[in-house]
Target: Imidazoleglycerol-phosphate dehydratase
Amino acid sequence: MAASRTAEVVRETKETQIRVTVDLDGTGVSKVSTGVGFFDHMLESFARHGGIDMTVETKGDLHIDMHHTVEDTGIVLGLAIAKALDGFKGVRRFGHAYIPMDETLTRCALDLSNRPYLVWKVAFQRPKVGEMDTELFKEFHHAFAMNCGACVHLETLYGENSHHIAESGFKALARALRQAVELDPKTLGHAPSTKGVL
Model:
């Protein structure tokens, strides 16, 4: 029987208190509470389309702004997924997805390389979606990539509606990650790299 690919990470600072649990082999069930409504919606979508069972409990200094809440949640979610992957042994490693959403098309290519990087080619027409600053979406994806050990290339090829641009990005990341973390019978027991380790 395959080992459980689950993890829990708790991180507390003067700015945020965060607890995240993940199960990479779940069905996309999530319980998310960050205090930022649109961000909760994006994380729920990420869990659903990534096939990851996920709990996110974030209490942040929202009386200042949403920056620490969003960025730090990205950090802890990335750490939890990396922990559940346990050295990336036995996974496909690479994933990609194209996600259309009405007038918007976004693509994500992802490598679980343990060489984190973010290429971000996403432009928003408006400064906010709901109450959330659109500049925070890059902060989340950067924090996630750096702490998950993932090389993430995310690009909105075209689009106008800021809600669609943001949501298609989260869905594209989720679907690419879902493909990359899938167990590969040809690499079971070792890292998918000529180096033998990632």
Remarks:
- Residues 6-180 form a domain with the Ribosomal Protein S5; domain 2 fold (CATH 3.30.230.40).
- The longest strand covers residues 16-23.
- The chain has one domain: 6-180.
- DSSP finds four helices and ten strands in the chain.
